Amino acid sequence: MRIAIVGSGPAGLSAAGRAAELGMSHVLLEKTDHLSDTIFKYQKGKHVMATPSSLVLRSDLDFDAGKREAILNIWDEQTAKLKLNVRYKAEVVKIEGEKGAFVVTLKDGDTILADAVILAIGTQGNPNRLRCDGADLPHIQYQLDDPTEYIDEHITVIGSGDAGIENALGLAADPAQGNVVTILNRGTEFARAKEANVKLLLEAQAAGRISVRTETTPAEVLEKQLVLDTRDGRETIACDRIIARTGSAPPRKFVESCGIEFTSPEREAFPVLSPVFETTRLGIHVIGALAGYPLIKHCMNQGYDVVEFLNGNTDLKPADEPILAEKFAALPGTRSVEEWLDLIGTKIDIFKDISALQLRELMLDSNVEAFRKGEAVFERNEPGSSLFAIAQGSVLVEVSKDDPSITVPIEEGSIFGEVGLISGRRRGATIRAAEDLIVVELSRAAALKLIATAPAAAKVVNRIAIERQLLQIFGSGLTRDDVAELVEGAEVQEKRAGEFVLKEGDEGNDIYIIRRGSMIVEREIAGKPVFLSYLPAGSYVGEMAVLDGAPRNASVRAAIRSEVIRLPGDAFVRLLERKPDLLKKARADVERRREVNDFIESRKENFSGVVDMYSQTAQFLVDNGIGEATDVLLIDETLCVGCDNCEKACADSHDGLSRLDREAGTTYAHLHVPTSCRHCEHPHCMADCPPNAIQRGVDGEVFIDETCIGCGNCQRNCPYGVIRMDSVPPPKPSILSWLFFGKGPGPGEPTKQWRKKHAEGAEQPKKAIKCDMCAGINGGPSCVRACPTGAAIRVSPEAFLSVAKLTEGE
């Protein structure tokens, strides 16, 4: 036998079709009793996409977008017509021998001799299992065959890739079934899903058919219930059935038993492959999902190509060659596509552990650009959330906005732009080419997909982000070499809302940097936890125990779902010993915190009631969004006279539309949090904005630009109800015209009746409206400037939540 093909999915089927067309002796081994088990196990009626649309299909079997059943029928007909040599119920358990003389052993004991072996076995038979308490309960399933089977159930889909989204859509397609469908996404982005699927999911969410829960993971599975870890803490929902679609991994044990090496030790890594799909075991080729290419069109092209290569067609170029050639055409030099890919893959750290085939797919969603020495790649304060990787040359980061000569280099092979990728903030510095430069710019979607699907690449991005955050936080003239030991020992930990990072009285000397979210610092006084301070992202804790050698003297817990970086205390001590400036800075920070603790301790007998009140107020503010805010509008109701000047001023500063609702919101004691944007550190509204219309301004304000299409995703994603969909009203006459001649609706937001009466033609389409902190308006936020009594203030949470405020109350 010339070729033994293992697996009859799209890749294996296409390979067998090409072999049959060329008259090559072959056998297609399928362990089930039907073709293409991958597609066969799709849910009934599923619409199968044919992406990417720009890629030409190479195969002797047809494939186009359509229903699952129609595609399977076509392939059955064409398989018979082409006279493919298919052997069903033939599960391969062992591959021995060498190129030109392989022995393939089946489960029933039969053996097949072949010159070459093509593995097209996919990954769906090895799903990632849930890892939480109760994960072995019987109502958890990892496959959905027919969504119409389930009626009047509370069903939770875990996983927000294409499979999870399609399952959720199928379960919620017919309202008459009465299912209550929830889908969980551990993040805010749908990095693993096709754009078309994400759009359908958000439309279903807007129509009320599906509940989409972001930043949410399963904590414990119970009978008829599911406990969730959410952004704000634990929550229990009704749940009759769980469909877990959390991805799958290659069947590594079997593949490695064939003598095939993988790109890294990570569970989800893929085999090392040559440009002709050959593995490290010469004569065995891998294609399809096992090669890291899950899209059907890619799989079928690979099946066609690998057989052509085996037939001696060494001149055949991949189907994506013309697309990539066009991308590289503007670059200097005369390199071929293969030479450019080799340069990019070997030079750039985040690409070193992905296969050449994965790199080709990634490049389809990326741009490659050349810059001359001195040219700016991007400028400080530019919007942008893409990630850049240096293939050739180096760059200089202009770290001072006042003195461009103060720079920090970033070398060849590294990345930059990760801050914009992670946080959505505008570019924090100008980046210039230090020499002639070639960079790969990964779109936000491509970068997030790479991080989500390539563990080794995620580690590189994580390491660089940690290193740069350490240098930024600790400063004191530190270099990369200085913090190398800390970076090597660093561990990123997720903390659910309310979970402790440090506990008062515990031993330990590790340092924790708050990477995302925020923390509350408490100390037990008179048997009660007393609020000491609030720590936003970018702060660090734990250094007091390092310097004093004493147990932890306060507790630190997450205000909302957060991430911290744990740094080994022993390595931090060695760094302090080498760097006296850093030691001095750390001692100063410790002294400030000790003063706060001493202040609380000295007054505990005299104002315990005040302490209780302040702690409750602090907790109230955290519960109402201050825990992830960067700027919050607060109203002191002992000073507020209800004049509504704040709302009127806001409307008059923004085309007649107020961005706040003074009366709405919640109140504790005398403190009111009105409905107005908090400008979150990691804005929920930014997730899934199709035109990328939501940006961060120079001063950290979150604003919506004119590219908004009115889809409403931001309104649905905001947990605080501060975004509304509205159309801009017609221009109002001036305030003087209203005062002297009675023209116009007067100050503030015009009534709907006036807007309708004065609108020209059809009403304007609705767009998202939210506070932008009066960016570009002299004097700062209009709501604060217009308050006659000083009741309205805008503050950062750390400025309000401090013991200094308590001191003022004494």
From TrEMBL:
<dbReference type="InterPro" id="IPR017896">
    <property type="entry name" value="4Fe4S_Fe-S-bd"/>
</dbReference>
<feature type="domain" description="4Fe-4S ferredoxin-type">
    <location>
        <begin position="700"/>
        <end position="728"/>
    </location>
</feature>
<dbReference type="Pfam" id="PF00027">
    <property type="entry name" value="cNMP_binding"/>
</dbReference>
<keyword id="KW-0249">Electron transport</keyword>
<keyword id="KW-0408">Iron</keyword>
<keyword id="KW-0004">4Fe-4S</keyword>
<dbReference type="InterPro" id="IPR000595">
    <property type="entry name" value="cNMP-bd_dom"/>
</dbReference>
<keyword id="KW-0411">Iron-sulfur</keyword>
<feature type="domain" description="Cyclic nucleotide-binding">
    <location>
        <begin position="474"/>
        <end position="593"/>
    </location>
</feature>
<feature type="domain" description="4Fe-4S ferredoxin-type">
    <location>
        <begin position="631"/>
        <end position="663"/>
    </location>
</feature>
<feature type="domain" description="Cyclic nucleotide-binding">
    <location>
        <begin position="350"/>
        <end position="451"/>
    </location>
</feature>
<feature type="domain" description="4Fe-4S ferredoxin-type">
    <location>
        <begin position="765"/>
        <end position="798"/>
    </location>
</feature>
<dbReference type="Pfam" id="PF13738">
    <property type="entry name" value="Pyr_redox_3"/>
</dbReference>
<dbReference type="InterPro" id="IPR017900">
    <property type="entry name" value="4Fe4S_Fe_S_CS"/>
</dbReference>
<dbReference type="InterPro" id="IPR014710">
    <property type="entry name" value="RmlC-like_jellyroll"/>
</dbReference>
<keyword id="KW-0813">Transport</keyword>
<dbReference type="InterPro" id="IPR018490">
    <property type="entry name" value="cNMP-bd_dom_sf"/>
</dbReference>
<protein>
    <submittedName>
        <fullName>Cyclic nucleotide-binding domain-containing protein</fullName>
    </submittedName>
</protein>
<dbReference type="Pfam" id="PF13247">
    <property type="entry name" value="Fer4_11"/>
</dbReference>
<keyword id="KW-0479">Metal-binding</keyword>
<dbReference type="InterPro" id="IPR036188">
    <property type="entry name" value="FAD/NAD-bd_sf"/>
</dbReference>
<dbReference type="InterPro" id="IPR050294">
    <property type="entry name" value="RnfB_subfamily"/>
</dbReference>
